[in-house]
Design brief:
The chain has 885 residues and is an alpha/beta fold. It contains 28 helices and 25 strands. It has four domains: 19-219, Orthogonal Bundle (Arp2/3 complex 21 kDa subunit ARPC3), CATH 1.10.1760; 258-325 and 334-433, 2-Layer Sandwich (Beta-Lactamase); 443-605, Reverse transcriptase/Diguanylate cyclase domain (Alpha-Beta Plaits, 2-Layer Sandwich); 619-883, Alpha-Beta Barrel (TIM Barrel), CATH 3.20.20.450. The chain has an eight-stranded mixed β-barrel with strand order 15-16-18-19-20-21-22-23, surrounded by four helices. Residues 616-869 form the EAL domain. Keywords: Membrane, Transmembrane, Transmembrane helix. The chain crosses the membrane at residues 27-48, 55-74, 94-119, 126-151, 157-183, 195-217.
C-alpha cells in the first residue's frame, strides 16, 4: 500500500513534498476511494448478504486475524518517500473466502486496516488505503465467483478461493504502481518487475497456506496440529525474507543519505567563495530529504535532525513527519540550559520510553509529544555536530526494535562522517580563498567572486588601497603590531564599504575592493573616505601610530574605445570596455602608483598611465641586456679647484641610448632600476668603468679622481666595502682617487645602519661625499658623526645665488659649516662666471657645472682635456692639469 510521506515541519518554510504533487495524489486517492465504493456496491448487488446468527462471530474472528497480520508486515521502499506493505493478509482473506460473505470480509478488512492506520496516526494516506482495501476485497470475490462458476462440477472447489486470494495482491500492486506514477516518482521497468514478482511470490505462498490450512483443518480428522508446523515454517521463512529486505533497504538508505550530502557538497563547491561556505549551507530540502529518508526507513512518526557544524552557531532544526511542538523547535534558549536529549555523552544510540525514562528525559519526551524516541548524537573528534531523533514507531505495536537501533546508529555514523568531511572541506575551501590574518578574501577568492559579479553586472569600479606605515615605525613596532594595524585597517575598510562590497587583502598592507554599479564620481568619493579612514591614527597600547593610505581605481567601462581581451589575447565577445579582474587590478595598481608618485591620496586610471608604466616595465626588463649590448655608457663631468682652476677629478654619470626610446635621462630610468632591485648591477658597472678610467690616467702619469654615486641599497649591504676593496686591488687604483657620493636623504634614511658601512669605506681611504647638501633633513649633529670628507652644495642654491639673497646666504653658510668641520666643499651647477667668482670669494673649494663642461663621453673628455687644459709639474712631482682661460 502506498505510503505517502507526511508533510515536514521546520523553522524554514516547508519545501517537502511538492504541493502540486500532494494535491495530485489526494485527487488520485479520492478517485480510488470512489472507485472502490462503486465496486463494492456492484458486488453487493451481485452477491447479496444472507443474514445468519454466526456472521457476527465469524466477522470478529476475521477482524482479529486481519489485525494480527497487519502487525506482521514488511514495508518495501520505493525511492522518494513511497512504500507498500507486504503481509499475511492473503491467509485470513483465503479463509474468509471459504466461510464468509463479501460484506463481512470487507467490513473485517476495513476495520482492521483503517483502524490500524488511525492508531498509528497515519492520516495522509487514509483515503487511498481505504479505497485500495475495498478494491482488493471486491476483486477477490469477483474472481472467486467467476472462477467458481467456470470450474463448478469439473474442478476442485478450493481453486476458486486460491485464485480469488491471489488476485487481491495483484490488484494492490497495480494500484501501487499507478500511485507511484501519479506521485511523479521515476521507477525503472526492472525495479517495478522485481517488486511485482516479490509481491506475487509472497501472495502465492500466503494464499497457498490459507487454502491448505483450511482444507486440512476441515477435511482431515485431527488435522489442525499439522497446520501449526506449516505456519511456523512459513513464518520463519517470512521473517528471514523480511530481514533480507530490511538489510537491503538499510544499505540503500545509507547510500542515499551519503549521496544527498555529497551532492549538496558539490553544489556548494561550485558556488563562489562568499565567506559562508560551511556544512550548514546545505540546502533545506537536502536536509529534509535526509530526515524523510530516515523516517521512511524506521517507520517512525517523526524524525528530527538538529545540526550544528560551526561550534559558535545555533543548531538548525529540520523535522520530517508529525508537527514538532514549537516549544522544542529551539532547544538552546539564550542563556538557558540545553535540552536533556542534547546533552547525551558519546555517540551511540539511546532508546527511551516515556514509561520508564528518568524524569528529565521523560519531560523532554513529553514536550515533544512522543511516547518513545531513538536518540543518537552526531559527533566529530572535537565537537557536537548535531543530534538525530526518531519518535514513535508506527509499523509495529511493540515499538522500535534492535534492527531500528542498528539502522539509525549506522546511518548517524555515516551522516556524522559526511558532515565532518564537509566541514573540513568547507574549512579548507574557506582558508584557500580567505586571508588568515584579516578574514577578508585573499587574491584567488577575490578574483573568483569579482569575476562572477563582473559577468552579471559589467559596470563596476576596481579599487586598490595601500596602507602606508613608515619603515622606521614598522621596524620599531615589529611584525605583531603591524599585523594588528593591518587588521584594524581591514575593519575600517569594511565599515566604509559595507558588508556587501567584495573586499580582499592582497598582501601586506595592500587591499582591493570592487564597487558594483558605480561610476567614477562615486568611486572618487569612496576613495577619499577610505583614505581618510585609514589615515586616522591607530592606537597601539599607549602609543598613537600615524599611517597613510593611497587609493587607485579603474572602471570596467572606459571611454577611449579600447577593445579589451582575455588572457589568450582574443576579444571578449566583441565587447568594448569590459576588462577582466586581473586587468582591472593591474590598472588600479597603475593608478595607485601614479597617485603615490604625484603625492595625491586617490587617483583614477587613464590610458596614458598604462603607457608610462609599460615604458618603465620595458626599461627594467631590458636593462641587463642593454648593459651587455653597450647601450648604457658612462659620461664624465670635470670638477675644478677654486680659485687655481686645477682639474681635480670628474663625476661619473650614467647614460642610456635606447634603440626605441632614444637618449634617456638618468632621472627616468635610474628610479625604475632601483625599484626593480637592479641598482647593484648599475653601481658595479659604473664603478668598474670609473676605476678603469683612473687606471688609464695613472698609466699616463695623471692623478685624476672619479666620483661615483651610490644608492641606499649599497649602504645597506655590509659586504659592499669588501667589494670596493677588491675592485681597487684588481685595477691597482689608490683609494683616495675614488670618491663615493651619497645623497643626503640616502644617508639620513637610516643613519645607524649606514654608519658601519661608511666607516669601513673611510678606513679603506675612499673619499666620501654628501651629495645635494641642503635639500634634505640632516642635522649638524649627524653630519659630525658621519666619516665624510666632502659636502656638495645642491645646484638649486647655486642657480639662485645671483638673484636670491636667501640662496646666497645658504651657500655661504654651507661653505662655512663645511670648513668648520674640516670638509671639502664642492658647488654643483656653476654656469656663470659671476657664480664662480662669488664661490671663490666665499672660499668654496671645488666647482662643477656647465661653465666648466657638460658631461662628456670618454673620447670627448680626452679631447676636452687636451684642448682646455695645460700640463704642469705639481708640488709632489705629479702632473697637474689646469684650465686654459
Amino acid at each position: 500500500m502506498p505510503d505517502q510521506a507526511s508533510a515536514a515541519h521546520e523553522r524554514i518554510p516547508d519545501v517537502y513534498p511538492d504541493p502540486a504533487v500532494d494535491r495530485r495524489f489526494r485527487a488520485f486517492s479520492v478517485l480510488i476511494l470512489l472507485t472502490g465504493i462503486a465496486a463494492a456496491v456492484l458486488v453487493s448487488f451481485w452477491l447479496p448478504l444472507t443474514p445468519s446468527a454466526d456472521l457476527i462471530g465469524t466477522g470478529l474472528l476475521l477482524v482479529l486475524a486481519f489485525l494480527v497480520v497487519e502487525q506482521l508486515s514488511v514495508n518495501i521502499d520505493v525511492r522518494g518517500g513511497v512504500s507498500w506493505t507486504i503481509s499475511f493478509t492473503e491467509i485470513p482473506l483465503a479463509i474468509g473466502l471459504f466461510v464468509a460473505p463479501f460484506q463481512v470480509v470487507l467490513a473485517a478488512h476495513l476495520v482492521a486496516g483503517v483502524g490500524t492506520l488511525l492508531v498509528r496516526r497515519v492520516q495522509d494516506r487514509l483515503l487511498y488505503n481505504t479505497g485500495a482495501e475495498i478494491l482488493e476485497i471486491s476483486t477477490a470475490f469477483t474472481v472467486l465467483t467467476v472462477v467458481g462458476g467456470v470450474v463448478q462440477g469439473g474442478g476442485p472447489p478450493w481453486f476458486a478461493v486460491f485464485a480469488g486470494a491471489l488476485s487481491a495482491p495483484v490488484a494492490s500492486t497495480l494500484l501501487a504502481l499507478a500511485a507511484v506514477y501519479v506521485l511523479g516518482r521515476r521507477m525503472r521497468l526492472g525495479a517495478a518487475t522485481k517488486l511485482v514478482s516479490r509481491t506475487l511470490v509472497l501472495g502465492l505462498v500466503n494464499a497457498s497456506v490459507g487454502v491448505v490450512g483450511y482444507e486440512v483443518v476441515t477435511h482431515v480428522e485431527h488435522g489442525w496440529p499439522l497446520v501449526l508446523p506449516l505456519l511456523g515454517g512459513v513464518s520463519a521463512l517470512y521473517f528471514a525474507y523480511s530481514g533480507l529486505l530490511r538489510e537491503q533497504r538499510d544499505l540503500e538508505a545509507l547510500s542515499e543519505v551519503s549521496l544527498i550530502v555529497a551532492r549538496s557538497g558539490r553544489r556548494a563547491a561550485a558556488r563562489p567563495a562568499t565567506g559562508q561556505d560551511t556544512a550548514n549551507s546545505i540546502k533545506v530540502d537536502d536536509w529534509l530529504g535526509v530526515a524523510q529518508r530516515i523516517r521512511d526507513q524506521l517507520g517512525a512518526a517523526r524524525v528530527v535532525l538538529r545540526l550544528r557544524v560551526d561550534p559558535q552557531a545555533p543548531m538548525k532544526t529540520v523535522v520530517a513527519g508529525d508537527e514538532l511542538p514549537e516549544e522544542v523547535v529551539d532547544v538552546e534558549p539564550a542563556g538557558g540550559r540545553a535540552d536533556a536529549l542534547l546533552r547525551l555523552p558519546g555517540s551511540h544510540v539511546r532508546h527511551f520510553r516515556r514509561i520508564d525514562a528518568l524524569p528529565e528525559i521523560r519531560q523532554a519526551l513529553m514536550r515533544r509529544g512522543a511516547q518513545e524516541a531513538l536518540v543518537v548524537p552526531l559527533r566529530s573528534a572535537s565537537h557536537l555536530l548535531g543530534v538525530v531523533e526518531a519518535h514513535d514507531k508506527l509499523s509495529r505495536w511493540r515499538g522500535f526494535g534492535q534492527a531500528d537501533l542498528r539502522m539509525i546508529g549506522t546511518t548517524a555514523s555515516h551522516l556524522a562522517t559526511a558532515l565532518d568531511n564537509r566541514r573540513l572541506l568547507a574549512t579548507l575551501r574557506h582558508d584557500a580563498y580567505h586571508d588568515p590574518l584579516t578574514g577578508l578574501h585573499n587574491r584567488p577568492g577575490f578574483r573568483q567572486l569579482a569575476t562572477q559579479l563582473l559577468a552579471d553586472r559589467p559596470g563596476a569600479v576596481m579599487m586598490r588601497i595601500d596602507l602606508e606605515v613608515q619603515s622606521a615605525v614598522s621596524d620599531a613596532l615589529g611584525f605583531a603590531w603591524i599585523d594588528r594595524i593591518t587588521i584594524a585597517a581591514g575593519r575600517r575598510l569594511r565599515d566604509v564599504l559595507g558588508v556587501e562590497t567584495p573586499l580582499a587583502r592582497l598582501e601586506g598592507g595592500a587591499f582591493a575592493a570592487l564597487l558594483v554599479d558605480a561610476d567614477l564620481d562615486r568611486a572618487q568619493e569612496v576613495a577619499e573616505r577610505l583614505s581618510a579612514s585609514l589615515s586616522t591614527p591607530y592606537s597601539v597600547d599607549r602609543l598613537t601610530v600615524e599611517a597613510g593610505a593611497v587609493v587607485g581605481y579603474s572602471s570596467s567601462v572606459v571611454v577611449d574605445g579600447v577593445m579589451f581581451s582575455d588572457a589568450a589575447g582574443a576579444p571578449r565577445d566583441g565587447a568594448v570596455g569590459e576588462p577582466d579582474v586581473d586587468e582591472l587590478l593591474k590598472r588600479a595598481d597603475v593608478a595607485l602608483r601614479s597617485a603615490r608618485a604625484s603625492g595625491e591620496k586617490a587617483k583614477s586610471y587613464v590610458p596614458s598611465m598604462g603607457q608610462i608604466f609599460l615604458r618603465r616595465f620595458q626599461l627594467v626588463t631590458q636593462f641587463r641586456q642593454s648593459l651587455e649590448d653597450g647601450q648604457v655608457s658612462v659620461h664624465y663631468q670635470p670638477k675644478v679647484a677654486l680659485p687655481r682652476r686645477e682639474v681635480l677629478g670628474v663625476e661619473a654619470l650614467v647614460r642610456w641610448v635606447h634603440p626605441e626610446f632614444g637618449r634617456l635621462a638618468p632621472d627616468e630610468f635610474v628610479p625604475a632600476v632601483e625599484a626593480a632591485g637592479l641598482v647593484d648591477v648599475l653601481t658595479d658597472f659604473v664603478l668598474d668603468k670609473a676605476l678603469a678610467r683612473i687606471r688609464k690616467w695613472l698609466d699616463q702619469g695623471l692623478r685624476i679622481g672619479v666620483a661615483v654615486n651610490l644608492s641606499v641599497r649599497s649602504l645597506n649591504n655590509e659586504h659592499f666595502p669588501d667589494q670596493v676593496q677588491a675592485s681597487l686591488e684588481r685595477y691597482g687604483v689608490p683609494a683616495e682617487l675614488l670618491t663615493l657620493e651619497l645623497g643626503e636623504s640616502v644617508v639620513m634614511a637610516d643613519p645607524a645602519r649606514a654608519l658601519p658601512v661608511l666607516r669601513a669605506l673611510h678606513t679603506l681611504g675612499v673619499v666620501l661625499a654628501v651629495d645635494d647638501f641642503g635639500t634634505g633633513y640632516s642635522s649638524l649633529a649627524y653630519l659630525r658623526q658621519l666619516p665624510v670628507d666632502e659636502v656638495k652644495i645642491d645646484k638649486s642654491f647655486v642657480f639662485g645665488m645671483g638673484s636670491d639673497l636667501g640662496d646666497l646666504a645658504v651657500v655661504r653658510s654651507i661653505v662655512e659649516l663645511g670648513h668648520s668641520l674640516g670638509l671639502v666643499v664642492v658647488a654643483e651647477g656653476v654656469e656663470e662666471d659671476a657664480a664662480r667668482d662669488q664661490l671663490a670669494e666665499m672660499g668654496c673649494d671645488v666647482a662643477q657645472g656647465y661653465l666648466i663642461s657638460r658631461p662628456l663621453s670618454e673620447e670627448r673628455l680626452e679631447a676636452w682635456l687636451q684642448a682646455r687644459t695645460t700640463r704642469a709639474r705639481g708640488l709632489r712631482d705629479e702632473t697637474v692639469l689646469t684650465l686654459v682661460s
